[in-house]
Request: fold
Amino acid sequence: MKSKKHHIRTLLFVEAPCDVRYNLRGVLMMRKSLCIIVSLLFAVAVFAQTTGRLTGVVKAKGGAPIAGASVTITSKDNSKISFAIKSDNKGIYSQIGLTPGSYVVEVSMAGYMPSSAEWKVKLGEATVLDFELIEMPKAVSAVKEGPGIADYKQAAQLFDAGKFQEALDPLNRALTADPKNPVFLGKLGIIDEKLGKMADAEAAFARVVEVDPSSFAGWFNLGHIRFGLKNYAGAAEALEQATKINSNEAEAFYNLGSARFNESKIPEAVAAFERAIHIKPDHALAHYWLGNGYVNVGKMSEAKIEFQKFIELASPSDPLVPQAKAMLDALAKM
Reply:
């Protein structure tokens, strides 16, 4: 089987007519209430049949829920269709009224590295997409007092409020005061990505690792951006550096495997996915793509185990579940 490309790692109410005539006012009010409830359920049912819902949990590495995380859900077909919501005290986010189709979901929280994923929303279903955010190294998340810090804090506040374009002015002032500050440069890269300026984001993160070669976040984000630009060799190069700095971060190895897979360097991809699973055994997507890797190198028995494990770990609404089942069926016939 050939290798496959894959990608890394938001009521109208009309009351029904009720012709009820009772002398007892309490009974009449009860009947009216029941009619309202029935019509509301009807409206919700019709609504659910024409749209879908996206929900999930935002967690920190280790499983603790993150409250107040910013979640932006944007249609791939129409960028003007976008929803900005927050996770609740249990880390749960939910957005109803989504037209079926593909969406880009972006999650950010102060002190954590942002994360994004492309996901499909289906008609009349609740699609589940969970996020596990990686805490930024202290050297990145903590900003010391110094030149430009006041402007940087203003930019960070605007960023947290979802005002990405407005955040650029104070951030550029901060960079004028301290042009080699890796924290300022990293924030610029994140904002550029939010604004869809991927080439500028790549340049910003390249500058981060130039001034601070030991920055895990810098190399990780540089790899992420290069992957989005389909520069898979460049992404792998950056992610290799990230894994050397932090050899215990599953997402870095998973993203490295993704880049190697898209380079058609399957043995290297397999090794990276295996390492990601060693660090995080419940990494569902790593199991799925490791299964594909094993198929490509002729390890069919091992592939079956990985696809089965993926199905056990993934949400039933995950669009890759039917593909994993199809792969299992195909392998069973071989």
Summary: The beta strands are 52-60, 70-75, 82-86, 92-98, 101-108, 115-121, 126-128, 131-133. The chain has three domains: 1-9+247-334, 53-133, 137-245. The chain has 13 helices and eight strands.
